[in-house]
Specification:
The chain is of the alpha/beta class and 566 residues long. The chain folds into two domains: 197 residues, Spore Coat Polysaccharide Biosynthesis Protein SpsA, Chain A (Alpha-Beta Complex); 266 residues, Spore Coat Polysaccharide Biosynthesis Protein SpsA, Chain A. The chain is 36% helix and 20% strand. The protein contains 19 helices and 21 strands. Helix 13 links the parallel strand 9 and strand 10.
Length: 566
């Protein structure tokens, strides 16, 4: 992740900026719009008021249609999609590998065929450790006993072709239990996602020397022995290398519903928190094959200031504050209202009689400037930026968010947002190729683990962001040159330049009636500045979203491997 405007690199010219926008818009409307919509949008022109008005009307109609049809569960949505992502084609593998080729492949590899479902897994782990100790080859390759030889040899050839001398783990995507909806993994291993579930899985090449240096596989880890090793590898700053290629030589379908594996995973995650001296509650997530973990807050409770910007719209503000007061179980919080020139008599009267502090923020709407003034007016340990068009209904939301934001390597924490029809509006932000809200059931069909796991994301919306005051001050707050949009995403990206992570939790949910206050205000100047700063549409790669995928409009599309730069 590179900030171009501070690294001395030349900024995009106006011509290049225009070209990138046109390329993005053309791809978006060709792939995600119907022919009639494409014609209408091209006639209206991009970035015009007429264009944005037409998009707003189309979006509203789409939401209404979805509400009338009724909501499908995620399982029904996954079952109804024959192929995900759009345009995905199962990979073709080389022809049958000859005995000579097989011998050449295995020269630098210790290949071990195992049955992970075997009840004597401890014996298997002991044999693996003995094998690693006596290995004369650099790589260990674990293969499930159910796999065809041609499949795992073809996969091995691909992994070896992309292995580098400094790599400790080389892993690829896998077909999973449904080959038409494969498991795409991110180019960067998110440390907090890895605590939730085994994000690396198989196929994977493991450097034998690294395994031995870490004391081998743990007998106590049971069937989660690989996950346990990956957690210890991350703690030791080992190098993980992702290969963007879907392989059929991954884990057996039975492992995705193995209760004993889930139980053993609980143990290895608990052990990871113990090694890291982090008090945490760790439990099996009943809605998925993942682990739910929550850092515990020690007494005394840190203070939290909930900072809410508003202009008029007493109805929204009062509903938001009432939901906080009636739902929140955390007892050390305060609310600061940031008033941006309210003129409505009912709102003015409400603010005058409020039990909470009201900070005047006069002048043209500049979200970043308003939030900076709000934070500078507060004194709490943690700051929650909260839009006035949100409704809180998770009682322990602050307990969860403070716990996550308290971790020393966490910069910003975000939550799941639902719209007025209970449909997912925000499950983190993806930049592929432009910042968009990930929306489960709308533009993305998640695996069970992804949908029900705390995970790392590139950014979260400023509508609900938790951040430590010290981190906010270290970053000098939001960039006020990004007046309306992208200031929240920019804050998240800058936090990651300081070696911190952005974390999303699906276990805190709020309602959000998006843009109820600022309407369709969306200045192109903000977006252009953001695109130039972070080289969007250029070399920027979302570290936590597969490089094989892109989101255009309301769908996720597959990018063939030849389109990916490595």
């Amino acid at each position: 992740m590179q900030r171009i405007d501070l690294d001395g690199a030349p900024l995009l010219s106006d011509q290049e900026l225009t070209r990138r926008w046109q390329t993005f818009h053309n791809a978006q409307y060709q792939l995600s719009s119907r022919p009639g919509q494409q014609l209408i949008y091209s006639l209206l022109g991009h970035e015009t008021r007429r264009f944005h008005a037409a998009r707003a009307v189309a979006s509203s109609l789409q939401k209404l249609r979805g509400n009338r049809r009724g909501l499908q569960t995620e399982s029904h949505q996954r079952a109804s999609a024959s192929v995900f992502p759009v345009g995905y084609l199962s990979p073709t593998f080389p022809q049958e590998i000859t005995p000579l080729d097989e011998t050449h492949l295995l020269e630098g590899v210790v290949l071990v065929i195992i049955d992970q479902m075997d009840s004597t897994i401890s014996t298997t782990i002991a044999l693996l450790n003995e094998t690693v100790k006596t290995a004369h080859a650099p790589w260990l390759f674990l293969v499930d006993s159910t796999l065809a030889k041609s499949d795992y040899l073809a996969t091995l050839a691909i992994l070896l072709a992309h292995a580098h001398d400094g790599d400790d783990v080389v892993f690829a995507d896998e077909s999973g239990s449904n080959p038409s909806q494969p498991i795409f993994k991110s180019p960067v291993v998110g440390p907090h996602t890895l605590l939730s579930y085994n994000t690396i899985g198989r196929p994977a090449l493991l450097r034998c020397a690294t395994v031995q240096d870490l004391g081998g596989f743990s007998l106590e880890a049971g069937r989660a022995f690989e996950h346990d090793l990956y957690l210890r590898m991350y703690e030791s700053a080992k190098i993980f290398h992702h290969v963007a290629h879907v392989s059929s030589a991954g884990r057996p379908a039975s492992s995705f519903s193995d209760q004993q594996l889930t139980t053993d995973t609980l143990g290895v995650v608990r052990a990871a928190f113990t090694r890291r001296a982090i008090p945490a509650s760790v439990a099996i997530e009943p809605m998925g094959a993942s682990i739910r973990w929550t850092p515990l807050i020690t007494a005394p409770l840190p203070s939290v200031d909930i900072i809410i910007p508003t202009r008029d719209r007493r109805d929204l503000l009062e509903r938001c504050i009432t939901s906080i007061e009636s739902s929140t179980t955390y007892r050390n919080f305060n609310i600061i209202i940031l008033d941006n020139d309210s003129r409505d008599p009912a709102t003015v009267a409400y603010l005058k009689n409020s039990n909470y502090r009201v900070v005047p923020c006069p002048g043209p709407f500049n979200y970043a400037k308003i939030m900076n003034k709000g934070v500078s007016s507060s004194s709490a340990d943690f700051v929650m930026t909260l839009n006035n068009d949100t409704i809180v209904f998770t009682p322990d939301w602050l307990e969860q968010l403070v716990g996550l934001a308290s971790l020393s390597d966490v910069g910003v924490v975000g939550v799941a947002l639902l719209d007025e029809f209970d449909q997912h509006e925000h499950d983190g932000i993806v930049i592929a190729p432009y910042p968009q809200h990930l929306q489960f059931g709308r533009n993305y069909l998640p695996s069970v683990e992804v949908a029900h796991s705390i995970r790392n994301v590139v950014a979260v919306t400023g509508a609900v962001q938790m951040i430590r005051r010290s981190v906010w001050e270290e970053l000098d707050g939001m960039d006020e040159s990004l007046r309306v949009v992208m200031n929240d995403v920019d804050l998240c990206l800058r936090a990651q330049l300081n070696n911190r992570f952005v974390v999303f939790t699906p276990f805190v949910k709020l309602y959000h009636h998006a843009s109820s206050s600022r309407g369709q205000l969306d200045p192109i100047e903000d977006r252009n500045r953001f695109v130039r700063r972070w080289d969007i549409f250029g070399d920027f790669q979302d570290p936590y979203f597969s490089e094989s995928l892109q989101i255009l409009g309301s769908s996720t599309y597959f990018r063939p491997r030849h389109q990916i730069q490595e």
